[in-house]
Design goal:
It is a single chain. Strand 14 and strand 15 form a beta hairpin. The model has no long low-confidence stretch (mean pLDDT 96). The protein folds into two domains: 308 residues, 3-Layer(bba) Sandwich (FAD/NAD(P)-binding domain), CATH 3.50.50; 180 residues, no CATH class. By secondary structure, it is α/β, with parallel strands linked by helices. Helix 1 runs parallel beside helix 13 and helix 13 runs parallel beside helix 15. The protein contains 15 helices and 20 strands. It binds 3-acetylpyridine adenine dinucleotide (N01). The site of 3-acetylpyridine adenine dinucleotide (N01) has 27 residues, from helix 5. It is an enzyme of class 1 (oxidoreductase). Its EC number is 1.14.13.92. Keywords: FAD, Flavoprotein, Monooxygenase, NADP, Oxidoreductase. It holds the Pfam family FMO-like. Its cofactor is FAD.
Length: 551
């Protein structure tokens, strides 16, 4: 048995550097995890890279940043008092409102005293002899903890493609996922935005309103539908508060974590007029069209009807037919994350906006003056990278995470080619390590906050169970894990989603191994399954009693 880790043994830590649990990240996940563990009487410490709480909502300050899950569903539901005292004023909350909410939560539950900001966890090694994690930070600090819990997020490790010459550009270069705190002045400037996913599509209409000229560098046209954002009426808010117990129940039992009816009928069984009317209704209501029929993500022909409806809308909206043609998405709708916008396609009718098709004329590099494609150089004063994230595994792989026998998570998962988790919450060989909305949980294909709450509550119950029985370690069994991974893949393969070229599959990161590490069985079914596992005494987990320590 190994007696220490590469970071040294987990013995001889001063009390101030020794915790029951270390939690990585102070976003929605880390904040609630800290609250739960403190309620259970455990000593937990959160480490957070940012200067303050918020996670992705701390970093994503770009103009137009909003959440595409309706605000009344995108909040914690664990506290009646918190639900009653907070009001979302618009259908979709913007980034400043969500950040205010998370600050309110941190203050209300006095969380800040157990959070260390401006600290990045760089390594965490499991010391098998003491059944503790030795955790190292970028400031040189090393602490030990019985439990290590990642709330590092699914979309927090930003991706900037390695364009040649990037260091030569004379003006500011900004990434939507690491936006500056001070206001960015676009007035009169030639601005280039690279990327037209959710972040680009939210930012482009806002930047266009200010910029002297905006160049949108688009590689793949994405599907976007109107968000239909609006102020909430007072009666709607009153009624929502009254009905919240039912709304919460509905969210928890639903497929995607929001309390909306899901249609199950087939788009192909409807008439052409019937489909047009239903898609039009969904378009006018705002939101994605994915809920219009039950088979849009499972049947390519059904999917094509929604795709064509959106293409027709783009042709109707964009005045220049050549520009409209370039904006038409051709992949299967929903296989990249569907985007919600506020006036995106209309933006291309402005005189100060130019769409640059970098699929036919790829970006060759960045120069001192701007962006150079194969055919010409675009002189710019500022470049905005809306180029997304190394999703699902990026934040975990950035940490040198080593479990039993010094095996790293990256090695175990073979850089993403062989991701294996049990319930997305644990992985064999890494005792007492838990992931909040890790790979192979519903995570990014659900309302994240509802999924985070479910995982946090399940993890804290599991820890309580282990503590009450005096266990030194809880670890996923490799058989149970293999079975869960197989099941995830089997469910995903009943849909069109694994076929997509998207960050869901890792296709957005050159060289990244393809996989589809998201559980598509639905939030309600997942919760039921996890509850069954705990009711059966944490079936599929190995609980090592204290006595085994001496063996
Ligand atoms: O990133 P993306 P995002 N040359 O990966 C392009 C969540 N989110 O930050 O499609 C040229 O979707 C790339 O082109 P292509 C949400 O889940 C949520 O926009 O790969 N272009 C694409 O257009 C979302 O899905 C909210 O051909 C290059 C873009 O960059 C996720 O975050 C708001 C390129 C990246 O799009 C990620 O969204 C915002 C290159 N070399 C984000 N490399 C909410 O509302 C990449 N691109 C909650």
């Amino acid at each position: 048995m190994q007696s220490s880790t590469h970071l040294g043994p987990a013995t001889s830590f001063a009390p101030e550097n020794s915790f029951d649990a270390v939690i990585i990240g102070a976003g929605f996940s880390g904040l609630y995890m800290l609250h739960r563990l403190r309620e259970q009487g455990l000593r937990a410490r959160v480490y957070e890279v940012g200067d303050d709480v918020g996670g992705v909502w701390y970093w994503n300050r770009y103009p137009g940043a909003k959440c595409d899950v309706e605000s009344i569903y995108y909040n914690y539901t664990f506290s009646e008092a918190l639900l009653k005292e907070w009001t979302w004023t618009t259908r979709y909350a913007d980034q400043p409102s969500i950040l205010r909410y998370l600050n309110h939560v941190a203050d209300r539950f006095e969380l800040r005293r157990d959070i260390q900001f401006r600290t990045r966890i760089t390594a965490a090694h499991y010391d098998e002899a003491t059944a503790r994690w030795v955790v190292h930070a970028d400031n040189g600090q090393t602490v030990a903890a019985r439990y290590l819990i990642s709330g590092a997020g699914c979309l927090s490790s930003t991706n900037t493609p390695p364009f040649s010459g990037q260091d030569q550009f004379k003006g500011p270069q900004l990434h939507t996922g690491q936006w500056p705190h001070e206001p960015v002045d676009f007035r009169g400037k030639r601005v280039g935005v690279i990327g037209t996913g959710s972040s680009g599509i939210q930012a482009i209409p806002e930047i266009a309103k200010e910029a002297g000229h905006l160049y949108v560098f688009q590689r793949t046209p994405h599907y976007s539908t109107p968000a239909g954002n609006r102020a909430h009426a007072a009666e709607f808010l009153d009624e929502t508060r009254e009905r919240y117990p039912q709304i919460r129940q509905h969210m928890r039992e639903s497929s995607n974590g929001v309390a909306k009816e899901v249609r199950r009928d087939s788009a192909l069984k409807d008439t052409e007029d019937g489909r047009a009317a239903r898609y039009e209704q969904a378009w006018q209501d705002g939101g994605t069209l994915l809920a219009a029929y039950g088979d849009l993500l499972t049947n390519a022909d059904a999917n094509a009807t929604a795709g064509e409806f959106i293409r027709e809308k783009i042709r109707d909206t964009v005045k220049d037919p050549a520009v409209a043609e370039l904006l038409l998405p051709r992949y299967m709708y929903g296989c990249k994350r569907p985007v919600l916008d506020s006036g995106y396609y209309e933006t291309f009718n402005r005189d100060n906006v130019t769409l640059v098709d970098v699929k036919s004329d790829p970006i060759e590099g960045i120069t001192a003056a701007g962006v150079k494609t194969g055919s010409r150089e675009y002189p710019l004063d500022m470049i905005v990278f809306a180029t997304g994230y190394d999703a699902m595994t990026g934040a975990l792989f950035r940490i040198d995470l080593r479990g039993r026998d010094g095996i790293s998570l990256r090695e175990k998962w073979q850089d993403g080619a062989a991701i294996r988790t049990y319930l997305g919450v644990a992985t064999a060989g890494f005792p007492n390590f838990f992931m909040i909305t890790g790979p192979e949980s519903p995570s990014v294909l659900s309302n994240m906050v509802i999924s985070i709450e479910q995982h946090v509550e399940w993890i804290s119950d599991c820890i309580r169970h282990a503590e009450q029985r005096g266990c030194m370690a809880v670890e996923a069994d490799s058989q149970a894990e293999a079975e869960w991974s197989r099941h995830c893949k089997e469910v995903a393969d009943t849909t069109l989603l694994p076929q997509g070229e998207s960050w869901y599959t890792g296709a957005n990161i050159p060289g990244k191994q393809r996989s589809f590490p998201i559980y598509l069985g639905g939030v309600g079914a997942f919760r039921k399954h996890c509850d069954g596992v705990s009711a059966r005494g944490y079936e599929g987990f190995i609980l090592t009693p204290q006595a085994a320590k001496a063996a």
